[in-house]
Amino acid sequence: MSQQKADYADDAEIDETLDQPADDATVEETVANLEERGFDVIVVDDADEALDAVQSQIPAGASVMNGHSTTLEEIGFDDFLSGGDHEWESLPDQIWSIDDDAERQTARRESQTADYFLGGINAIAQTGELVAADLSGSRIGAYPFAAGNVVIVTGTNKIVPTLDDALDRLESVAYPLENERAQEAYGVESAVAKQLIYRRETEEGRTTIVLVRERLGY
């Protein structure tokens, strides 16, 4: 089901103080701390530049999978991937062409080991930690180890001062919005069932964060 954030955002009560684009000084400090923790960071001004940056990261012939991400939808990546105007192996197209439920679930699990796995994040501590969660783990399962490379796209509205603030943002911004989206799309409530605190990337060049100076996703 195609959704826009505007379809459900007004129904969610969130802490607006934890959803504001960061100023330049905050972005600069956050980038420095992320890089010190082993993440590669690309800073761009808007959604169009973000899509260009993502495309530049993925070589021809690579297998590509994306976890659900409102941010990826907003920058146009999901449409680009499904549109086929690229030289990648699109694993979502393969997965959703499978009719058998058990076979499709197996393919979804195998897709966690894609050459490039793309997704979003729910919060970034200015000190350099990333926080994310989902209901099934189909997005965050690839981040720590399974995927060959990870590309995370996020707006600077996800930046908050500390790890405690990042965990607070997960509960008071990301969860209410995702819960409304899930009810709108599937008729069920969501939950912070599986949670990741990504403190450091130990494999050089594996994880790239595309940081967009816009209010994107949640």
From TrEMBL:
Residue ranges of the region described as Disordered: 1-24
Record's compositionally biased regions (Acidic residues): 9-24
PANTHER family reported for this sequence: LUD DOMAIN-CONTAINING PROTEIN, LUD_DOM DOMAIN-CONTAINING PROTEIN
UniProt domain LUD: residue ranges: 27-183
Annotated protein name in UniProt: LUD domain-containing protein
Top-level taxon in the UniProt lineage: Archaea
